[in-house]
Structure formats: structure tokens, C-alpha cells
Design a protein that fits this description.
6 strands, alpha/beta, about 150 residues, Rossmann fold, two-stranded antiparallel sheet
Length: about 150
């Protein structure tokens, strides 16, 4: 049996980050964590492209345009449940769009879009007691890029 698992070594990798500006207090913290992870993995800052979009629903389109320029894409956003069904539609559209881009492009993409009940839950996942989702998904993107290279 042969097991393929890429390392979290980002030297020489080009990484794209697509970030939603909506709920900026949260997404800014996600970006800080993601950039720290990429730095910790050895990704050169000149090899990181950050694309800012208005909201989570716009992430897949930007990711599609970025896909042929990078080895992996990190997506970051925050969708908080409100009093309407808008939350459900935005989450589903963003998630399905990202899956489609990843499958169609063959470029690994990690899902760092928080889908929480409120801002307190989201903040707990951006360096609080629930860890740092931005950091985690960026490190995972580096590992996935290397895993895809091992597969060939």
C-alpha cells in the first residue's frame, strides 16, 4: 500500500486567497491567521495573491479566475445567521460554487467560510477558544497543493 500525503512546506508554491469583505471584523482576523500560516509554511509573500470580494457569494467567481495562476486557493468569509433564509441561500451558493471551481479546475481549494449563528461564535474561531480557522485552512491548502503534486 502507498499513502500519499503532502507536507505543509510552502516553499515555491503560489497561493491564492479569496476573502469576503462582508463581516470585515471577522474576515480580517481570518486573513491575519491565513497569512501567518502561509508564512509559517515558508510561502514567500511575493507568491501570495489576495483577492478581496464583496461577499461570500462572490468568492467562487474570483476563485475561478485565480485558479490557473496558483497552486492552491484559500477561501475566507463569514456568513452569520440572521432572521431570514438569506443565510441558507448564501451558504449553499458559496459552498456549491467553490466545490465546482475546485473540481473543474483541478486546483485544491480550502473552505474557510465560517457559517455561524452569531459573531461571538465566529470570533471564537478566529483565534479564540475554538482555534483559528483562517490559519488551519491556509496550512491545509499548502498540504493539499503538495498532495496534488504527489498524485501527479
Amino acid at each position: 500500500m502507498r499513502t500519499l500525503r503532502g507536507q505543509a512546506d510552502g516553499r515555491g508554491l503560489k497561493i491564492g486567497v479569496v476573502i469576503s469583505r462582508f463581516n470585515g471584523e471577522i474576515t480580517d482576523r481570518l486573513l491575519e491567521g491565513a497569512l501567518q500560516a502561509l508564512n509559517d509554511c515558508g510561502v514567500d509573500t511575493d507568491d501570495v495573491t489576495v483577492v478581496s470580494v464583496p461577499g461570500a457569494i462572490e468568492i467562487p467567481g474570483a476563485a475561478k479566475k485565480l485558479a490557473n495562476k496558483v497552486d492552491a486557493i484559500v477561501t475566507l468569509g463569514a456568513v452569520l445567521r440572521g432572521e431570514t433564509e438569506h443565510f441558507t441561500y448564501v451558504c449553499k451558493a458559496a459552498q456549491e460554487g467553490m466545490i465546482r471551481v475546485a473540481l473543474d479546475s483541478g486546483v485544491p481549494m480550502t473552505f474557510g467560510v465560517l457559517t455561524t449563528e452569531n459573531s461571538e461564535q465566529a470570533l471564537a474561531r478566529t483565534g479564540g477558544p475554538k482555534g483559528h480557522k483562517g490559519y488551519d485552512v491556509a496550512k491545509d491548502a499548502v498540504e493539499l497543493a503538495n498532495t496534488y503534486k504527489l498524485i501527479g
